Amino acid sequence: MEALLYYVIAGAVYFFALAVQRKLKSTYSRWSGVRNQANMTGAQTAQAILQANRMGRVKVGQKPGKLTDHYNPRDKTIGLSEQIYGVPSVAAMAIAAHESGHAIQDEVDYRPLEIRTFLAPIASAGAKFGLPAAIFGSFLGSPLLLQAGVLAYGGALMLQFLTLPVELNASKRAMGQLEKLGLMDDQEKKGVKEVLRAAAMTYVAGAASSAGYIIYIAIIAGRWIFRLPPLAKPPLKPPPLP
């Protein structure tokens, strides 16, 4: 029963994530080939938004890899991938504006971002050591170690639910900044929305994945931790009639 439940959840998560990744790639591919009317690269877009918000201390740099774009609140830097940093496309403008949205969140002390930044190292440790601790706890017959491992891993997965509203808010800020600066026309606005929506769906997929595994862990670990008996199996034959 537990194995079947795991494969059902894992299969649903895999196919949903696969569909989301395909949508993101196709949307990004389409709009990365369309030059924006302002002829601004991703780096120039980010700089324009930062200057408009008097955030000159935030630095914009180039990062290796594809779609490795991120904002680091610890050193106040926006890292843009090679395909975004120096390319004047609609997709580059959308992603650069999104990362600038995170920088604005940091500037205005957006609480969900602060909480996520604080919890990220703890969640990383929980994801790394939680499952091994739970496995060793089950082998050693230690309910305390098992419970600690399950809670640590579950806590790491829960961070995905906080990540989603942070990302959606950054995209909302990105759209507002691009409209305020007049950097896109109606057609480009459609493209920016599509890119940001497709990117947001990756976080929806992450949250859905976390929800599925948390449900699985809660069901399985609940029986182990609280020593609940297994589900009763139905009788092979119906009872005789009275």
Please estimate the helix content. Answer: over 70%
Count of alpha and pi helical runs: 7
Total beta strands: 3
The secondary-structure element order is: HHEEEHHHHH
Shape: elongated
Structural class: mainly alpha
N-to-C span: 32 Å
Low-pLDDT windows of residues: 228-242
Describe the structure in brief.
With 242 residues, the protein is mostly helical. It has seven helices and three strands.
Structural overview:
It is a single chain. Helix 5 packs antiparallel against helix 6 and helix 6 runs antiparallel to helix 7. The protein has a 3-stranded mixed sheet with strand order 1-3-2. The C terminus is likely disordered. The protein is built from 7 helices and 3 strands, in the order ααβββααααα. It has one domain. By secondary structure, it is mainly alpha-helical.
